[in-house]
Amino acid sequence: MVAETLLTPASLIWPLFVTEGQAVEEPIATLPGVSRWSVDRIVERAKEAAALGIPCIALFPNTPRHLRTERGEEALNPDNLMCRAIRAIADAVPDIGILTDVALDPYTAHGHDGVVDAQGRVLNDETMRILVDQALTQARAGASIIAPSDMMDGRVGAIRAALESEGFHDVQIMAYAAKYASAFYGPFRDAVGSGGLLKGDKKGYQMDPANAEEALREVAMDLAEGADTVMVKPGLPYLDIIRRVKERFEVPVFAYQVSGEYAMIEAAAAAGAGDRDALVLETLMAFRRAGCSGVLTYHAAHAARLLAG
After folding, report:
1. Which of 47, 179, 203, 246 is catalytic?
2. Domain presence at residue 1
3. Is 202 a known active-site residue?
């Protein structure tokens, strides 16, 4: 009756990993309890999410190695793994939101989010032009929310202009506005098949964990360019950033409880260091208390069942 913060399944977005094949479920060793799913099985997960009251799923492809190139051309293939999954889900579960990742790291041979030069530096403007085409490819397939996670400068404005020019007025942009160069991303890279591929690091375009004011500047730029909502990533180590963004801009703010955060909870529960259900719900409540409208979490389905119980 007197609780100040509410957590419901409507606050959750469920990230899902897509892989090639039929009737495939591939458990991910570094993400216990999480699997890659073939397109037909991803549709089942979307139906499950809808039944649990989860309003949106987020898709990430595990692109086969032979389709990965220096420039990530497979990202623009209208029949790539991501687009096939989008169409299948939109046909089978028309009322669920489909959030799609816009970045090149699932498609490049070097594991970076963009095109790199001979010195290994990511080329912002050249990458941005490809990201615009990638966003349009996903919108044409039926994506409802485009989520650029690459951290290239100017890409939100360019994507917004392209979506409007093609008539995709209702397709939202959720900008990864404050994405830090974090140590918590390792299991995710395994999940999308880029683990071991990355040459160098991503500190040239992701944010320094020491910086907070920079996060506010990044959010301001993305909103000015046309983002509908913004994201802070990772989650729990950056609750202070979430609170400052919410108070400064008064827009919907989302957090990504990333793979390393999920894996720590699972490891703690497996070691008997804490009750899994309680840890899941308490951490998700922390995001809501900090000001999040919603949370991307691999615990979404489990949390929704707990909340319904």
Report:
1. 179
2. no
3. no
Range of the domain at 124: 9-308
pLDDT tens column, 94-118: 999 999 999 999 999 998 999 999 8
- The pTM assigned to this predicted structure is 0.96
What whole-number distance in Å separates Cα of residue 32 and Cα of residue 177? Answer: 28
In this structure, the strands spanning 25-27 and 35-37 are antiparallel
- Residue 203 annotated among the catalytic residues of the structure: no
Catalytic residue, chosen from 47, 199, 202, 233, is 233
- Helices vs. strands in the chain: H and E counts, helices first: 10, 10
Residues 104-156: tens digit of each pLDDT:
999 999 989 999 998 889 999 999 999 999 999 999 999 999 999 999 999 99
Specify the number of domains making up the chain. 1
SS3 content of the chain, % helix, strand, coil (to 5): 45, 20, 40
With a CB cutoff of 8 Å and minimum separation 6, the contacts of 86 are: 59, 98, 100, 138, 141, 142, 143
